């Protein structure tokens, strides 16, 4: 299951979504996440579902990548649902057995949280699946550029964020290899209580940290060998520039946001 995490992975393509300016995609992703928590009616998520479906179709990203990204959060969804259902004591009493009680408001809140988490994961996954690490770096640096007048290290921060995001799939793959190596030696990660399972992870964490530091050192050496000196004197082959495709997307996305958020007051 750990290899199913799609956050940080990039799927090359030439779709309309792939060709959009990374600055717009980053801002749109943040606004998309924010608007999920402004929705207070179930039927509003029908429009969110339709919008996400259209974006996935246009991006030509296979549904199996979306499904793979959702599998690892299944336990989180179940935990969130249980926590909200049994910890909320408002609304109409639907079920009571001993000290366990379920209220209508608890079911409502749990449903909202599950839907929001699902769309949140899909939205962030689409950003990384359709935007290359170089585009993400350039986009973030461009967005941070106005802060340079305050001596804000825009390029360095953008580079760190992109490298961290890019290393997620690498660390996941490394963890999977270490787990398989430990399991071949008789390690068991799937049985026992929480404490036993936590202790069984120690043989994984030590080599994972060692390999992570090794990879970071190799990356630093490689960057120094290529005379990397941050953003100083750096030029770009492809300069970011909004075109008609981006302006059209901005208009459509703005209309979508206004429409969906307005359902909050209807």
From TrEMBL:
The UniProt record lists the keyword Repeat: no
Does the record bear Transport in its keywords? yes
> What keywords are annotated for this sequence in UniProt?
Cell membrane, Membrane, Transmembrane, Transmembrane helix, Transport
Where would you find this protein in the cell?
A: Cell membrane
Membrane topology designation:
Multi-pass membrane protein
Which Pfam family is one of those matched by this entry? CbiQ
Q: Which CDD domains match?
A: EcfT (cd16914)
InterPro entries associated with the record: ABC/ECF_trnsptr_transmembrane (IPR003339), ECF_transporter_component (IPR051611), EcfT (IPR024919)
GO MF, one annotated term: transmembrane transporter activity
Record's GO cellular component, any one? plasma membrane
Q: Where are the transmembrane segments?
A: 26-58, 70-89, 109-129, 247-265
Q: Which family does it belong to?
A: Belongs to the energy-coupling factor EcfT family.
What does this protein's UniProt record list under function?
A: Transmembrane (T) component of an energy-coupling factor (ECF) ABC-transporter complex. Unlike classic ABC transporters this ECF transporter provides the energy necessary to transport a number of different substrates.
The family database entries (HAMAP family) matched by this protein are listed as: EcfT
How does the record describe its quaternary structure?
Forms a stable energy-coupling factor (ECF) transporter complex composed of 2 membrane-embedded substrate-binding proteins (S component), 2 ATP-binding proteins (A component) and 2 transmembrane proteins (T component).
Protein name stated in the entry: Energy-coupling factor transporter transmembrane protein EcfT
Native organism: Hathewaya histolytica (Clostridium histolyticum)
């Amino acid at each position: 299951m750990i290899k199913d995490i799609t956050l940080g992975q990039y799927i090359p393509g030439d779709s309309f979504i792939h060709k959009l300016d990374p600055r717009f995609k980053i801002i749109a992703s943040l606004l998309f996440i924010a608007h999920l928590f402004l929705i207070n009616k179930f039927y509003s998520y029908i429009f969110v579902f339709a919008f996400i479906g259209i974006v996935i179709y246009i991006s030509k990203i296979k549904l199996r990548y979306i499904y793979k990204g959702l599998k690892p959060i299944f336990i989180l969804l179940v935990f969130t649902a249980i926590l909200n259902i049994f910890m909320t004591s408002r609304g109409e009493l639907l079920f009571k057995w001993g000290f366990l009680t379920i209220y209508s408001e608890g079911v409502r809140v749990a449903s909202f949280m599950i839907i929001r988490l699902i769309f949140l994961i899909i939205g962030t996954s689409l950003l990384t699946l359709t935007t290359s690490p170089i585009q993400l770096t350039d986009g973030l640096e461009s967005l941070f550029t106005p802060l340079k007048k305050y001596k804000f290290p825009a390029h360095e921060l953008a580079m760190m964020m992109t490298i961290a995001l890019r290393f997620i799939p690498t660390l996941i793959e490394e963890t999977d290899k270490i787990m398989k190596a430990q399991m071949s030696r008789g390690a068991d990660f799937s049985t026992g209580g929480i404490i036993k399972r936590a202790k069984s992870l120690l043989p994984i964490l030590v080599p994972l940290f060692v390999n992570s530091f090794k990879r970071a050192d190799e990356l630093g050496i490689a960057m120094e060998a290529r005379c990397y000196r941050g953003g100083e004197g750096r030029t770009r082959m492809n300069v970011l520039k909004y075109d008609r495709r981006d302006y059209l997307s901005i208009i459509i996305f703005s209309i979508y946001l206004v429409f969906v958020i307005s359902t909050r007051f209807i």
